């Protein structure tokens, strides 16, 4: 699969496309896509959010302005860290399930570190 990468639940993506402004645009390899089934909207959105953050985290300078990448990551961290405790716990559990099922070691590490890195864990020790 030339120029393709894996996205959770969607199969390979062709990353050879480009946005009109020159930024890389992942294009789905339609012949390999399988419609995912999620147990809830929350799970689907959590996986989509993680996929976007994983892409941003691994982006090189040529793919994305690093200042913009930091702003996005910090923005997400702010939003998820201010969720009510029960919603933060639900997200922690979902990310934990994703980490347990992940076969890519680097992505698993990203998932395992997500709760602490994005402020989901209370510092009330």
What report would you give on this structure?
This protein has 125 residues and is α+β, with helices and mostly antiparallel strands. It has 2 domains: 1-37, no CATH class; 38-125. Helix content is 50%, strand content 14%. The chain is built from 4 helices and 3 strands; from the N terminus they run βββαααα. It has a 3-stranded antiparallel sheet with strand order 1-2-3, with no helix packed on it. The chain is globular, with a radius of gyration of 15 Å. The protein starts with a strand and ends in an 8-residue tail after the last helix.
- What's the helix count? 4
Strand order of the largest sheet: 1-2-3
Largest sheet: 3 strands, antiparallel
Number of domains: 2
Task: Point out poorly predicted stretches.
Answer: 1-23, 27-32
Number of strands: 3
| SSE string | EEEHHHH
Radius of gyration: 15 Å
> Strand portion, in percent?
5-15%
- Please state the structural category: alpha+beta
What global shape is seen? globular
Write a short abstract of this structure.
The protein has helices at residues 41-57, 66-81, 85-101, 105-117; strands at 4-7, 11-18, 24-28. The chain is of the alpha+beta class and 125 residues long.
Write the layout of secondary structure elements.
Elements: E1 4-7, E2 11-18, E3 24-28, H1 41-57, H2 66-81, H3 85-101, H4 105-117
Helix pairs in contact: 1-3, 3-4
């Amino acid at each position: 699969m030339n120029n393709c990468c894996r996205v959770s639940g969607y199969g390979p993506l062709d990353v050879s496309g480009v946005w009109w402004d020159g930024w890389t645009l992942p294009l789905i390899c339609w012949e390999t896509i399988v419609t995912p089934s999620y147990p809830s909207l929350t799970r689907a959105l959590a996986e989509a959010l993680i996929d976007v953050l994983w892409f941003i985290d691994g982006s090189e300078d040529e793919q994305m302005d690093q200042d913009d990448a930091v702003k996005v990551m910090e923005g997400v961290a702010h939003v998820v860290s201010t969720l009510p405790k029960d919603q933060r716990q639900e997200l922690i559990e979902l990310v934990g399930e994703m980490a347990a099922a992940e076969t890519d070691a680097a992505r698993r590490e990203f998932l395992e570190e997500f709760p602490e890195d994005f402020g989901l864990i209370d510092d009330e020790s």
